[in-house]
Write a structure and sequence with these properties.
35% of the residues lie in helices and 16% in strands. The chain has 389 residues and is of the alpha/beta class. The strands form three sheets. Strands 1, 2, 3, 4, 5, 6, 7, 9 and 10 form a nine-stranded mixed beta sheet that branches. The chain has a four-stranded antiparallel beta sheet with strand order 11-13-15-14. β6, α7 and β7 form a beta-alpha-beta unit. The two termini are 26 Å apart.
Length: 389
């Protein structure tokens, strides 16, 4: 591979006067600023106020009109989802090895253990065929409890992730969970505004979680949401995420269980509620950025770009580029380093989760697809500055 040629080709895609460019910068409008100022003027600064409810309603409209509880991060949302669904110590949660560490952390918070199933290279989500094959081989039903004979653990849930904005085969995941009486959690932190077969992941999940971190397509600075059609579950999440405070009057404090201080502050909700009003335009912009990258990469022989599957509309939160041929770790890291030195905020794909030091290695399977993406993939900035070049 001619690394110098590839480096110069990618650098040429960005206007020099616009450098440096970060991997994903929030687009903050004057309306966003006005919304936060209004909340300050109204003296709502903490985890109460009408704007929090308004934001939850706005998020609900994005996720097929399901119920919503806003929390302070996507990780908090995942933690609350697992707690509300009754996942606890030594329970097994099936999940993907290729994602940000948040789902794994949440599983560990409740004392659970991950069962990693490899991804599909078609949509980057968990491979449903591999999952079905594993279950047919190892799952047994004992008094309506699913046991994994390979790990000797009770299986409680399937937690899948919409990677880089691409929704996986969520309808098939639903069928799988119904067959084995498991709960389906979808981490949609990266896929706000995305659809597959005209639906979001929330249409088929027991719980979907969202993130409004500063690098997401809609940001509240920091924030997340638990989304579900189960009102009883949402009441439990709302209660537990507000320190499990249960009082007969507003002047007293009585906590009926271990709770969490996870509710979203009004200031964050104000920013998020203003931002989400422009979601459709942002999705269009992100998709235009993808089209620009796709046109540019046609002239490059060393790499290609990941495209959405049929009947999908991805928000292309981040664009994934892949080397067509295997590349050494040093070669790839050197390219990433040189691009960043030139002001282009490139990042590596997350380290595959099964290699992290706090993961039990006793029951690991093989993960060639996830490892291929990790070894050969990288993300270039999602930036409107590309459209100016």
């Amino acid at each position: 591979m001619n690394s110098e040629k590839l480096l110069n080709e990618i650098i040429s895609w960005y206007p020099k006067k616009e450098l440096p460019i970060n991997i994903n910068e929030p687009l903050i409008s004057s309306s966003d600023i006005d919304a936060v100022i209004k909340t300050l003027d109204d003296n709502w600064v903490s985890t109460a106020g009408p704007i929090v409810n308004e934001f939850e309603t706005s998020v609900s409209k994005v996720f097929d009109n399901k119920g919503v509880v806003a929390v302070n991060s996507g990780t908090s949302a995942l933690h609350m989802a697992l707690v509300a669904l009754g996942v606890s110590r030594k329970d097994e949660v099936i999940t993907t090895p290729l994602t940000f560490v948040a789902p794994l952390n949440a599983i560990k918070y409740v004392g659970g253990e991950p069962l990693f199933i490899d991804i599909s290279l078609q949509d980057l989500s968990l491979d449903i065929n591999m999952l079905n094959s594993y279950a047919e081989k190892y799952f047994t039903d004992e008094n309506n409890i699913v046991l994994d004979s390979n790990t000797n653990k009770k299986v409680k849930a399937l937690l899948v992730v919409d990677v880089f904005g691409h929704i996986g085969e969520v309808e098939e995941y639903r069928k799988f969970c119904d067959k084995y009486k498991l709960k389906l959690i979808v981490d949609s932190a990266e896929s706000l505004g995305s659809k597959r077969n005209n639906f979001t992941s929330a249409e088929f999940s027991d719980v979907t979680t969202a993130s409004f971190n500063g690098n997401k397509i809609v940001t509240s600075g920091a924030g997340g949401a638990v989304v579900s059609g189960d009102e009883e579950l949402l009441d439990k999440v709302r209660h537990l995420s507000t320190t499990a405070n249960k009082t007969a009057d507003k002047f007293s404090y009585f906590h009926d269980s271990v709770g969490y201080n996870y509710r979203l502050p009004a200031l964050n909700a104000a920013l998020g509620n203003s931002q989400i009003k422009n979601l459709n335009n942002k999705v269009k912009t992100y998709r235009d950025i993808h089209k620009s990258y796709a046109a540019l990469v046609k002239n490059v022989e060393e790499i290609n770009i990941f495209n959405e599957v049929e009947n999908s509309e991805s928000n292309y939160w981040l664009n994934l580029f892949m080397f067509k041929n295997n590349i050494s770790k040093d070669e790839k890291n050197n390219l990433i380093t040189q691009l960043n030195k030139n002001g282009i905020g490139v990042r590596n794909v997350w380290n595959v989760l099964h290699e992290l030091p706090f993961v039990n290695k006793d029951s690991l399977l093989n993960y060639p697809n996830a490892e291929f993406v990790f070894n050969n993939g990288f993300n270039l900035p999602t930036t409107t500055k590309l459209l100016k070049s």
